[in-house]
Automatic annotation (TrEMBL):
Record organism: Georgenia ruanii
UniProt keywords, alphabetically: Transferase
A single GO molecular function term of this UniProt record: acyltransferase activity, transferring groups other than amino-acyl groups
Residues annotated as domain N-acetyltransferase: 22-190
Record flagged with keyword Transferase: yes
Name of the molecule in the record: GNAT family N-acetyltransferase
Length: 196
């Protein structure tokens, strides 16, 4: 599904977002170098949709307006520890009610530097991302998907309260592992509010 408008819904948010230990802010073209430092590492890029071979290739995609409009950077003490994606989308709807489904949900994604693993930064950042989606952006639903062998990612989805909605068998083509199972998680705004 495509983003709902030319202007990113994230443009209306009061930045930066602060958690107990982290600062979350919109990405800039200058963040290409710091995010490339961990996205180029095999344990990270093996699960990402795109694995550019060079910094120039990565920067060419990262610095596009479409990519920057949905990318957030996660910092700890001025050190970039990861990045997040929030792609606001239209929900599927029948034609007669399609207008009511515009911009009501988002697909989420994330990548974190392995040097910062095991400290709870990803969990803290994604919890804040959910708060952003449901409070600041007033979305009704968020989703996240991963390859089934990417256990750290689906465990994170479960830790933050997302529910597994989908398990597909050899539906996802991985660049080195061939056809693998896929998993899809989601959370509704009212579910999130009840759990808080």
């Amino acid at each position: 599904m495509a983003e709902t408008s030319e202007r990113s819904p994230l443009a209306s948010v009061a930045w930066p977002l602060l958690t107990d230990r982290l600062l979350i802010r919109p990405a800039t073209p200058d963040d290409a170098v710091t995010t490339w430092a961990y996205r180029r590492l095999e344990p990270v890029h093996r699960w990402l949709s795109r694995a550019p071979l060079t910094l120039a290739d990565y920067r060419g995609h990262f610095a596009t307006p479409a990519a920057l409009a949905k990318t957030l950077v996660v910092e700890r003490d001025d050190d970039v520890v990861g990045d997040l994606m929030v792609a606001v989308e239209d929900a599927w709807a029948q034609v007669e009610v399609a207008e009511q489904a515009r911009g009501v949900q988002a697909e989420l994604g994330w990548a974190f530097h392995p040097e910062h693993a095991g400290r709870g930064y990803a969990t803290e950042a994604v919890r804040e991302l959910l708060r952003l989606c449901f409070e600041d952006l007033a979305l009704r639903r968020v989703t996240a998907n991963c390859f089934a062998p990417n256990e750290p990612s689906w465990r994170l989805m479960e830790r933050v309260g997302m529910r597994r909605e989908l398990y597909t068998v050899r539906e996802s083509l991985h660049r080195s592992e061939g056809w693998v199972d896929g998993m899809g998680y989601a959370l509704l705004a009212d579910e999130w509010r009840r759990r808080r």
